[in-house]
Amino acid sequence: MTDFNYTLWIFLIPFLVFILLGLAGHRLKARISGLLGTAALGVVTVLSYITAYFYYFRTAGINDVFRKITVFDSTWLHFTDTLEIKMGILLDPISVMMLIVISTVSLMVHIYSLGYMKGEKGFERYYSFLSLFAFSMMGLVVATNIFQMYIFWELVGISSYLLIGFYYQKPEAVRASKKAFIVTRFADLGFLIGILLLSFNTRTFDFSVLTDPQGTAIAHSSGISFLGLSVTTWSMILVYLGGVGKSAMFPFHIWLPDAMEGPTPVSALIHAATMVVAGVYLVARMFPVYFFAAPAALEIVAWIGAFSSLFAAIIACTQTDIKRVLAYSTISQIGYMMLALGVSGYGGHDGLGFMASMFHLFTHAMFKALLFLCAGAIIHAVHSNFMIDMGGLRKYLPLTHLTFLIACLAISGIPPFSGFFSKDEILAAAFHHNKVLFFIEYAVAGITAFYMFRLYFTVFRGEDRHYHTVPHEAPPTMTIPLIILATAAAFSGFIPFSKLVTSDGKAFQTHIEWGIAIPSVLIATTGIGTAYVMYVRNPSLPGRIISIFKHSYKLALNKFYIDEMYLFITKKIIFRYISEPVAWFDRHIVDGTMNALAIVTQVVSFRIREFQSGQLQKYAFFFISGTILLALTLIYLLH
Amino acid sequence: MNAGIPLSYFLILAAVMFFTGIYGFLTRRNLITILMSVELILNSVNINFLALNRYLFPHKLEGFFFSLFIITVAAAEAAVAIALIINIYRRFTTINVEDVNIMKY
Amino acid sequence: MNILSLFVLIPLLTIAGIVMVKDIRHVKVVSGIGTGIQLIMSAILTFLYIQARQSGDTSEMLFVKDLVWFRSLNIHFAVGVDGVSVAMIALTSIVVFSGVFASWEMDYLTREFFISLILLATGVFGFFISLDLFTMFLFYELAVIPMYLLIGIWGSGPKEYSAMKLTLMLMGASALLLVGILGIYFNSAPEGGNLSFNIIEISRTTIPMKAQYIFFPLTFIGFGVLGALFPFHTWSPDGHSSAPTAVSMLHAGVLMKLGGYGAFRVAIFLMPEAARELSWIFIILTTISVVYGAFGAIVQKDLKYINAYSSVSHCGLVLFAILMMNHTAMNGAVIQMISHGLMTALFFALIGMIYGRTHTRMINEMGGLMKVIPFLSVCYVIAGLASLGLPGLSGFVAEMTIFVGAFQHPDTFQRVATIIAVSSIVITAVYILRVIAILLLGPSEKNSYELFSDARWYERLSTVTLIVFIAFIGLLPFLLTSMTGASLQPFMNKILGMNIF
Amino acid sequence: MTLNQLMFILFASIIVVFSILTVTSRRILRAAVYLLFVLISTAGLYFMLNYAFLAAVQLTLYAGGIVVLIIFSILLTSHISLKFEPVEWKKSLFSALAAIAGALITIITILDFTFSATNEAAREVNMRLVGKSLLSVGSDGYILPFEVISVLLLAAMVAAIIIAKKGGPKSTDTQTSNYQ
Q: Per-residue pLDDT for A625 more than 60?
């Protein structure tokens, strides 16, 4: 089992299931296609765990260094002698970790969906899209070269598009899916140009060459500069742009809240746990290039991460749609991960930020998926997305309540839940790098705790709302994943990440820096306390606070009008001021020129036609004058 | 009988006659007068033929016969032309050449 | 019998068959069989070609046949293929086959319609197999003329106007082309000797620089008009929107590729020095084409107009890549021609089928078709995704090859142009998704939609044929690129051997 | 000044003056009569050139035949007292310019050119010779043109009759519609 050839099946199985369900799904019974998809994913999960076991504990750790293992790498598309797209599987600590994350959350979502999506029209379509997503995401993380990553990057984009637009008859869902795809596509443009620039400079797509700290790619990178930054820096910034889009960082975050129009399990899988962290994964994958060749780009990564985390956290405090709160919280948490990468060093303990980022990615996947699945269970129970329709659900949904609470504690960073550990490492890394970033993250930790418990208190405490039917706990297909994920969210903090997933593959020691951890826990507790005061003890307080900070509240509620700005750019600028003039120009100027040519020809020919007047003497006149002129020419001009 | 008269006199006379005919052809509107202009033109050509024959190649008869045939052809042409004119007159009730213009465009 | 001559002969026999068949209903069957044979033939040709190459045949052209048919001007009927032409022939037979089934419901002057259609195909096949410039031009004309009848008689909307416009513009182009070809001919033997129309022979000599400067632009624009080069693309929206389904398919799918193929086989291959010197002008034009076509497509309301503008954008990319004059980009151009041919044919086929049901092509008059005609809608989505360059479908392979290839160009100018061209992928996504969202998704309000039947067997056959090939190229591109890539080597040798460096 | 020259000047001035009158006269019958004078003077020139036979032909055919034919047709188609509208000045000007330019070019060319005559003895043209030549083959034989011209005359005769004849399928239609 150590040659890892079986890893091929990790992404072949979902692909085959996608093809099967896509082509023949409508002939199968809905339940069977669901079970088929789930079973296939179960196999994939088992394979992923086997891979992880053998990778971490059997094969790779020679001299305590995790090697990069290229299981398989074959040419898919040949460009030039040095540039070609290969399809392959690269196993290294981060990709194996991602396999675990994806397969676990995926499996949970598959199982959960059996209950949640029961009776939906297009059940088989749903599972086929989920398989497509699993396939693409697996392909993305095990990519051996940047172009393979781009290919699967696009594929996860399309699966996200298809799944957001699953309820294709709902105009909001259609709009949201379109928006998600186009925004990320725009960011991917940057990614693609970045790849082109990078490959032009380094003559390779291959990660193993690109990210080798002693390799030629990094060594040759400080070439020509443009606007004060080296071309490599520019290309890495552009590549990061792709990550910004996919990970919904500011300013490309606008698609993620809207993406909540998709089915809730999809939000849990794609828009919380896996796809949106692809940007983080991308930076982590290219980390040596960033660190050695483009430190300025890494700085940008850090600042965009920090800003997004603060920005999204503030918005999250004002949202009333339960899923949107979670969406903004996702943005905020991914901002944390980006920040951690941005402040990280390379190798050993210097790579603390890198390790913390991956650690947080892992724990976040667990607790955020859990939060979304819980939200799904709540929505399932009360048939509404809005917090105003919820309250006092603690007694109706005890199990959901418990798991939700665990997730809230985890995300708020309360020990001993997982979020505490990963967040602490991030804060420690930020502290050693830049104090401003560090304090921003402290603030965000507090705000996070506040808005999560605002959510928790409004939904589970407080008074009962008027429910059409008495809310009841979800079926076991839905609760079992909740329990499993809750366990993971609670205890995954104890995984010794610094031994397993590090920037250079070498293990190092970490310890909790209590000087940073205790204040952070205190801040989180303050946040929780504030939420308790505002939403349980004194429910009229929020209204009063809002009326004091009317304008800022309105600003945050409307997400700082970023959406409107985008709408302005697309509707006004692109449609009104570019496309319509182009269309007009084409119809009237370009085509008009062609038509004008035709008209001129016609007019001239009508004129010429008039010579044929039927007037015999005119003909004669022209004939004779012509003869005379000809005679003149022949006699006088040519002699 | 032509002693003392240079050849060019005949030729110039013919040229004047020819272009007078041309002028007539271009300005006259009545088809019959146009026909008369054509006769002038033909005659001027005849004079040329004969003068050149007499002065330059007196031992040959080409010019003579050419003129003879031209006269014959002119006769035939006049006959046909007048038939045409009469027919045109019948159809259009005019022999004004400017009104006979349906053959256009 | 040379296998290539069969490609001209079989369509002619099919036409004869159509003429002789008594029952008008059998006309379609005969056409279907004829084009089916053609499809099988092209599969055989591809197979034979690969086999010959693998057995070590390294001559530039295979299956060469040369017959003199006008000795005093040294005009030959010379045929031969390399990997590029084989690929184009395969594309043509796929599209023609699919086009016949897409026009299964044609009931006005059926016999004449299919005759014209197959005559058009004859011209295209002849063009791709020709090695002789004059014969090539002859077949080109043969392909253009039936187009006039097909649009003018069986079209819709302002069909006479469109047919006239299209034909006049293409005729104007072929006038330029004829001058270009004759120019090449009269300069084909700069050191004395016999003048020649044969491409291979001409490619061994170097046409004098002075002549190249004159005749390269003429030839390139001549072919460029057919390839929808800005600003000579305006026949495309009108022509496509008026043409009947199969004609749009053939026209956008195959005929526009004649432009790219010709520009590459004649203009660049025979006059690489001038191409290198003058390419900047055309790179600007094609870059404009790419972006401009995409922007133009965003606000259109007629499905066919959207597709026509999208074709301008995609075909612009073909010419753009050819002008980069390096192996990868040219290879990308070939793949893009095939990929665009397949997907645009699919688009037009689907538009025709949707139009046959809703009797409108205005997207804002339709909506929610996904629910009523799921099969066609899914096909439309697949075509759209191929068009916006989704990995796993042919568009991605083509575009990426072009972009990577173009970006390897040593000059900054070309790379900046590439970046501008790359940005079109976003705009493409915008207009494709806009159409999908308005046309297919959303609630279906109209009750009359309930009566629609989903695709019939011939429609399924037509679309599935195309989709299979789109996915085939998208999933296993190395099979195609290795075939076309190797055939580009002579081009590269000639270009690299230029004394300009 | 010899008598010859005097004669020539007489004939030439008659020809020039009456030619111009022919093409400018506004009364058609007068124009025809002026034409007659021109034709007769031309016959005189033929006499001077010693082509008596041709002069005779000219007198009989032209002056006797064609002019009479023309006068007949004038009488058939127009009123005897018909007076033409004056010619449009533009038309007249341009035509005159063309004619004068042509005449000038021709005359200048003629004056520039030196004609060289042969020294061979002149040949008398008499009726016998003409008759023989017309009906013989060989270097001085004109049998072919003669035959052709006879066919032409026949054709002209037939054509004149056919054309001038009333009727014919097409013209009947027109005429009936005209008469209705």
A: yes
Q: Which residues of A touch C309 (CB under 8 A)?
A: 586
Burial of D127 (0-12, 13-18, 19+ CB in 10 A): exposed
Assigned token pair, A41: 């994913």
Q: Is the Cβ–Cβ distance between A624 and D102 less than 8 Å? A: yes
Choice between C99 and A513, residue whose per-residue pLDDT is larger: C99
Contact by Cβ (8 Å): C97, C36? yes
Distances (CA, A) of C182 to C80, C144, C187, C196, C208: 21, 20, 8, 10, 14
Tokens encoding A108: 């949970």
Q: For D103, name the nearest residue in chain A, comparing CA atoms only.
A: A628
| Residue A526: both structure tokens together | 């303050």
pLDDT in tens, C280-304: 888 999 999 898 888 888 888 888 8
Structure tokens at A612: 């044929």
- Which amino acid belongs to residue C125? F
Tokens 């008074």 found at? A463
| Sequence letter at residue D138 | G
Residue A222: predicted pLDDT: 59
Choose, out of B84, B95, B97, the residue to mutate when testing the contact with A (most A CBs < 10 Å). Answer: B97
Residue D118 touches chain B, beta carbons under 8 Å: yes
Tens digits of residue pLDDT in B12-29: 999 999 999 999 999 988
pLDDT tops 70 at residue A224: no
Query: Taking a C-beta distance cutoff of 8 angstroms, is the pair A22, C374 a contact?
Result: no
Q: How far apart are the C-alpha atoms of B37 and D25, rounded to whole Å?
A: 12
Please state, rounded to an integer, the average pLDDT across all residues of chain C.
85
For the entire predicted model, the pTM comes to: 0.83
Residue ranges of C 15-34 with Cβ closer than 8 A to chain A: none
Q: In this complex, which of B26, B29, B104 lies closest to A620 when CB atoms are compared? A: B26
Q: Is the dihedral of CA C68, C73, C79, C82 positive or negative?
A: positive
Q: Give A625's contacts in chain D (Cβ within 8 Å).
A: 98
C104's CB contacts (< 8 A; 6+ apart) are: C28, C456, C458, C459
More confident residue, A230 or A627: A627
A189 has a chain C CB within 8 A of its CB: yes
Q: Torsion angle of alpha carbons C355, C358, C362, C364, nearest 10°?
A: -150
DSSP state of C252: I
Strand partners, C76: C68
Task: Give yes or no for a contact between A192 and C407, defined as CB atoms under 8 angstroms apart.
Answer: no
Q: What is the ipTM of this complex?
A: 0.77
Task: Report the C-alpha gap between A99 and A76 in whole angstroms.
Answer: 23
- DSSP annotation of D114: P
Residues of A in contact with B97 (CB under 8 A): 615-617
Distance (Å, rounded) from C-alpha A544 to C-alpha C32?
Answer: 77
Q: Tens digits of per-residue pLDDT, A20-48?
A: 888 887 788 888 888 888 999 999 999 99
Q: How far apart are CA C370 and CA C381, in angstroms?
A: 10
